[in-house]
Specification:
The complex is a heterodimer of chains A (460) and B (446).
Chain A: H1 8-16, H2 22-40, E1 43-46, H3 50-56, E2 66-70, H4 97-104, E3 108-113, H5 147-154, E4 160-165, H6 171-177, E5 180-183, E6 203-208, H7 211-221, E7 251-255, H8 263-278, E8 282-286, H9 291-309, H10 327-340, H11 349-369, E9 372-376, H12 394-398, H13 403-407, E10 412-420, E11 425-432, H14 438-450
Parallel strand pairs in A: 2-3, 2-4, 7-8, 7-9
Antiparallel strand pairs in A: 1-3, 4-6, 5-6, 5-10, 9-11, 10-11
Helix pairs in contact in A: 5-6, 9-10, 9-11
Chain B: E1 3-14, H1 55-67, E2 71-72, E3 75-76, E4 79-82, E5 92-95, E6 102-109, E7 112-123, E8 127-133, E9 142-148, E10 155-161, H2 168-184, E11 197-207, E12 218-223, H3 226-245, E13 253-258, E14 263-269, E15 279-280, E16 287-288, H4 291-300, H5 305-315, H6 320-326, H7 330-345, H8 350-358, H9 370-380, H10 388-401, H11 403-410, H12 416-428, H13 434-445
Parallel strand pairs in B: 12-13
Antiparallel strand pairs in B: 1-10, 1-11, 2-6, 3-16, 4-5, 4-15, 6-7, 7-10, 8-9, 11-12, 13-14
Helix pairs in contact in B: 2-3, 5-6, 7-9, 10-12, 10-13, 11-12, 12-13
Classes of the chains: A alpha/beta (460), B alpha+beta (446).
């Protein structure tokens, strides 16, 4: 077994016991990088001095392990392009709070990963630097927008990765690549230094091989930040405490949306969730508000915020002018501009905010009865390359099961719940909990993961 | 004249705060050593940089509102005002749209009340300067626009009145009062030449006897003194009257004021008016205040110029005009009041003293001790010297009538000296040379 294939936790333990050396991990990782990266197009930039930095971090919690970071996090030492031509040569003079804390915890920035340009999309196909291929099956997409980060984990090209989610951008690519993706509560993790997509829902979070790895990585960067006014002032708990806990007596609601495209996925999900009953949880099917409205809410709010957030790239301070925006960004800017126009705002933006409140209330109702809710993460397996190109609402439809919880700020975890043997592609389940209760989803997802065979690393 | 002025003012002022509105950069655009030195990713609008609201600026805005008799919104928020301009690095300005911090206040003027419609807080833009520079080194000057971000995101309050202003002189008086109040509160320097305070007037005319608002308005910008404000309004009255008298309606537009010609000129017509696509800034959580907090801030307000003038007039038997002159600026007023306090104690003629001070009949500086000022007042105003025997007799009488004061004085509490001088002056009359009295008194006490 190659050492880059170890989970984060295994690597930490083996390093602590001095069974392996950090140099050996990087040796295996670097050769895997040489072998795979140009083919899969996962990393846009690579840290050439990663090992030297890692050696100096051996005494810190993450012991110098290599972490892949989505290219919308500003980093002083590596270019930050958000996969766009406009920021092609942008070298930030400041560090995002997340990567700053990652580095302080002894994580090493192994490279910056490909994404949908400006995080607009769920395929990583809208990147101005070409699509990333799904390591599980390179004829398929990795999902997005954190597709490069999910692929880096799936391809063993990092011990774990960091992404950001606005509505599905961590969990959906995690589902398509068969890895774990944790979207924290909105406000749990600072957004400072993350090129903004939709400010009111952007949430940085970890992608990893196991739920425990995700919890460990989240520990390194979650918590209050005075540079982000929307970041909670409450100290973050130790998320790894939720690992290995019993789920006996927990009430779990299965959001079973009666939608044709979901039928076969839902059937498998219900079968697989049986294990939670066996572990002592009460599992029931529940009706939640129709997810189609959330597509509308999310689309309107996100486009509006995008149109404003991208206004700063006006061609005065950055290399290229507005004509170099990709087609997707242009569409979003125009739609958002339209929905905020005088006379239209009530019809779109303000109405969307009201429906957002209805979702919040719906979740409040459901969480009075259930500790955790679960649904499929994505309606189906990873789509084939090219699938997003002619589908105007590709991302919105692929993320339809996640948008309601995203616009409500809820935390959620994707864990794989099925693998198709023919295609080697995965289905993922998304567990969600009330705001600030990440421990609940971590606990349930961890129990599910440990008692099923779908986590490929546990079986390596 | 068959037409009456309908005018409202929108006044911007840069707030004095330690740091900028949404970042930790120093708020000192005029004192910066060089352009673009007080900057950071936030006020440069760089990717991922986030604003965090400045508490001091919010407190000062609300205190201004309280000083202008405003209501305060206990729930408020910041909104994005979206437009493109090279001085606006984010492509939007963080401002307040439908829920300003303060609303419904007023300022009294000699020509009537001017109601305040709203006061909101926003961030200033960067400063552009248009210059001819040889950019490409070919020896020929090129037109260039330089951007200085030292001013970017400096806190800026906007005070908007109702269209209550009925004359150019009232506009000027209102503006002066507003500036005076902001300086009293010590929240803004209001240096108009540097752009620390900017005036905009909305000017239209209506037929005498009509009450409804005219269906057009002309916005006059780039006015950087109260004198020019008055002149611009006067010019617009003439210009608009002429158009109306010829049966036309003045174009709704934005006009600039040229101080050299004394005329206004068209800048932008209504067709170009921007739709700012306001929406709540998702980077800044809404703000909530308690009534107790607002009340506590109200208690912290200093005595304002009008109230202070009235109090000085009553306490020291001054006419209101001279009381107003004494209270124009807070530090000056503090000085004058300390002089008056002693003068009253010593039973001097306060109005006469004030006249001497205001007409500069005696020289003084704000650092002088009140006793020194009174001494020069006495010296300058040929006070009557008293026969020494008579003075000694009166002093003896005063001392024996006030044994407590004498005891206090001898115990080191020399402040009672003023009281004893006052008692003596009452016997001898206000024309008496207070210096002579004081000297003799000290001799006798010692």
């Amino acid at each position: 077994m190659k050492l880059n294939e170890l989970t984060l936790k295994e690597s930490l333990d083996k390093l602590a016991k001095k069974e392996i050396k950090i140099e050996e991990i990087y040796q295996d990782l670097d050769s895997a990088y040489q072998a795979k990266n140009s083919k899969l197009n996962i990393y846009l930039s690579h840290n050439d001095v990663a090992l030297e930095q890692a050696k100096k971090a051996s005494h810190k919690p993450l012991r110098g392990l290599p972490i892949a970071v989505k290219d919308n996090f500003c980093t002083r030492d590596l270019l930050t392009t958000a996969s766009t031509k406009i920021l092609e040569e942008f070298q930030p003079q400041y560090e995002s709070t997340v990567t700053k804390r990652l580095l302080e915890s002894g994580g090493i920035l192994y490279g910056k990963t490909n994404m949908d340009a400006w995080a607009h999309g769920s395929s990583t196909e809208t990147s101005d630097f070409g699509p990333t291929l799904n390591p599980c099956n390179p004829a398929h997409l990795p999902g997005g927008s954190s597709g490069g980060s999910a692929a880096a984990v799936a391809a063993d090209l990092a011990a774990a990765a960091i992404g950001s989610e606005t509505a599905g951008s961590i969990r959906q690519p995690a589902a398509w690549c068969g890895v774990v993706g944790l979207k924290p509560t909105y406000g749990r993790v600072s957004r400072f230094g993350v090129a903004a997509m939709a400010s009111s829902t952007d949430s940085p979070g970890p992608l990893a091989k196991t739920v425990e790895d995700a919890a460990i990585l989240l520990n390194s960067f979650a918590g209050p930040d005075e540079r982000d006014g929307t970041c909670s002032r409450n100290k973050a708990p130790d998320f790894s405490q939720a690992i290995g806990q019993s789920i006996k007596g927990l009430k779990i609601g299965v959001i079973y949306q009666d939608i044709k495209e979901l039928a076969s996925t839902n059937q498998i999900l219900v079968e697989q969730l049986q294990i939670l009953r066996e572990l002592g949880a009460a599992v029931e099917t529940v009706q939640a508000m129709d997810p189609h409205f959330a597509i509308g809410v999310y689309t309107v709010v996100q486009r509006a915020e995008v149109s404003s957030n991208l206004a700063r790239y006006d061609g005065i301070r950055y290399g290229l002018d507005r004509s170099h925006f990709g087609a997707e960004a242009k569409k979003r800017i125009m739609l958002g501009t339209y929905t905020l126009t005088k006379g239209r705002a009530d019809q779109y933006y303000n109405l969307a905010q009201k429906v957002r409140t209805l979702y919040l209330q719906d979740y409040q109702r459901l969480f009075q009865k259930y500790d955790v809710l679960v649904s499929a993460t994505s309606p189906s397996y990873a789509k084939e390359l090219g699938a997003s190109l002619d589908a105007a609402m590709f991302g919105e439809l692929e993320d339809m099961l996640l948008e309601a919880s995203s616009v409500s700020g809820l935390p959620g975890v994707n864990v794989p719940f099925y693998r198709d043997e023919k295609t080697n592609l995965y289905l993922g389940a998304s567990f969600i909990a009330p705001m600030w209760q990440e421990e609940k989803v971590i606990k349930v997802a961890d129990a599910f993961e440990k008692n099923t065979k779908w986590n490929s690393w546990r079986n390596k | 004249m068959p037409y009456k002025l309908v005018c409202g003012l929108e006044i911007h002022a840069e707030l004095k705060t330690k740091s900028k509105m949404f970042c930790a950069c120093k708020n000192d655009p005029f004192g910066a050593p060089a352009p673009n030195t007080h900057t950071c990713p936030v006020c440069l609008g760089m990717p991922g940089a986030l604003p965090v609201a400045n508490r001091q600026a919010i407190e000062r805005t609300i205190k201004l509102g309280l000083a202008l008799n405003c209501q305060v919104n206990l729930f408020s928020k910041f909104d994005r005002k979206n437009y493109f301009y090279p001085d606006l690095p984010k492509g939007y300005q963080i401002s307040q749209y439908d829920i300003p911090f303060c609303y419904d206040g007023y300022v009294e003027t000699s020509e009537g009340k001017v109601r305040i419609h709203r006061i909101h807080l926003e961030e200033d833009t960067a400063k552009l300067s248009h210059q001819d520079i040889d950019l490409d080194g070919d020896g020929v000057l090129d037109k260039a626009t330089l951007v200085d971000f030292n001013r970017s995101s400096v806190p800026l309050v906007e005070i908007v009145t109702e269209a209550d202003i009925i004359s150019p002189t009232q506009a000027k008086e209102y503006g002066q009062k507003l500036r005076q109040i902001m300086r009293y509160l010590d929240i803004a320097d209001c240096d108009m030449e540097k752009g620390g305070m900017r005036l905009e007037a909305n000017i239209s005319l209506r037929r005498e006897g009509k009450n409804e608002l005219p269906d057009y308005k002309v916005e006059c910008k780039n006015i950087n003194s109260f004198k020019f404000l008055e002149a611009a309004i006067n010019y617009e009255i003439t210009r608009q009257t002429e158009i109306l008298q010829n049966g036309g309606v003045p174009t709704q537009e934005t006009r600039g004021y040229n101080p050299t010609t004394g005329k206004t000129f068209a800048q932008r017509s209504k067709e170009d008016a921007a739709d700012y696509r306001y929406f709540p800034d998702p980077d800044l959580p809404p703000l909530e205040f308690t009534a107790e907090q607002i009340e506590a801030w109200r208690q912290e307000l200093p005595e304002l110029p009008e109230a202070r003038a009235l109090r000085l007039a009553t306490t020291y038997s001054l006419n209101i005009q001279s009381a107003q002159s004494l209270t124009r600026q807070r530090l000056e007023a503090d000085f004058f009041e300390s002089v008056l306090t002693l003068a009253k104690q010593e039973n001097l003629d306060c109005q006469k003293l004030v006249n001497a001070l205001l007409n500069k009949k005696i020289t003084f500086s704000l650092q002088d001790l009140p006793s020194k000022v009174l001494a020069s007042f006495q010296t300058a105003f040929a006070s009557q010297t008293v026969d020494e025997n008579k003075l000694t007799a009166v002093l003896q009488q005063v001392l024996s009538n006030n044994p407590d004061a004498v005891e206090k004085y001898r115990a080191g509490k020399t402040a009672v000296l003023g009281f004893l001088v006052g008692q003596t002056m009452r016997e001898l009359g206000k024309q008496t040379d207070v210096n002579q009295v004081r000297e003799q008194l000290v001799k006798m006490l010692d």
